[in-house]
């Protein structure tokens, strides 16, 4: 059977490779020429897929990548895994529309389409279905099957991978659900059928909104605890000893990435559009998390002030620019926002992040290697993204002052968020 995966990013490429493992002939469609070239040369740019997997799939003649949808002709199953960003705070479904319009003419009777992109409840049936029916001249589910299955890929997580992470699946009718369930059972260990695409769409938004709201909770708690003179990190460690009913989150300089800062706004947008209500939890969490970079600046300014050092002209060494540790992704990175603001305030900002390759540092920010000399000659070291590769002991020993937003350092010269 022929499987087409539209979008060969950190979600689509693992799906394509699992499809090859399961015996499908797979075509990976991507609009990015550079990606298609790399893939057809047997190279992976996705953290969780190694070159050899792509090379083997090519060698067996069971995989090819293309920018041309003609390569998708006669597909049996098509998975759509394209980005769903925000545009001025509202869902931007242009990539879903583009994929839908392009794949629709290639739908043959009895084929199956599954949307995996994170989106608001209703998208599959209200938005994608009409595009596919119009473009194919067929009706669903009589002519083709359609459903939704949210992605739960966590790049770099070696414990939970595509094949062993439970996969929620749905269909617009029971036959679509059966077809889609049967497909996923060939590539993942646990399949969790739900009664409608809207349930599956909402489930995904719930998962990430839950995380976003709880991070906002500990972020706001960290602000109050510090003002009360209470060590919030110790309190969180103590609370984490509760073996049931508590889930550990930690404060930080804000929430980055392309999931957490985005997905909750899909939910609040859907509630406002549908009911005219504000989803206050989500909006409050957005406000708190978006306010953390500025909170970091305020705390740092007060700490420097206590050392008779204005921010202007101070020599700052920042550790970490990526949005989360041990990764190089800078999308929506709060660390970069902090770096930019400090530079605007006239600080001399030098940033170290070995994961961020070939990065066009924001203006007036110098990329450096973290070293004894850099620490010694700084007025302050600011820990923003706590990559495990940084030498925190050295920083503690030789830095005049450390502002630590990730609880990696101890000592009389250390202040934590
Ligand atoms: N963060 C905190 N405190 C925390 C946890 C995270 O400040 O306690 C910050 C991180 O520094 C980062 C941001 O939040 O800036 C997002 O971190 P994340 O660990 O949630 O990483 P993501 O963005 O890669 O989230 C992904 C999501 N996966 C999918 O959407 C499929 C999310 O659902 C996962 O729960 C998360 O990975 C995970 O568990 O690692």
From TrEMBL:
The keyword GTP-binding does not apply. The keyword Protease does not apply. GO terms for biological process: polysaccharide biosynthetic process. Residues 317-411 form the UDP-glucose/GDP-mannose dehydrogenase C-terminal domain. It comes from the Bacteria. Keywords: NAD, Oxidoreductase. GO terms for molecular function: NAD binding; oxidoreductase activity, acting on the CH-CH group of donors, NAD or NADP as acceptor; oxidoreductase activity, acting on the CH-OH group of donors, NAD or NADP as acceptor. Belongs to the UDP-glucose/GDP-mannose dehydrogenase family. NCBIfam families: NDP-sugDHase. This is UDP-N-acetyl-D-mannosaminuronic acid dehydrogenase/UDP-N-acetyl-D-glucosamine dehydrogenase. It comes from Nonomuraea polychroma.
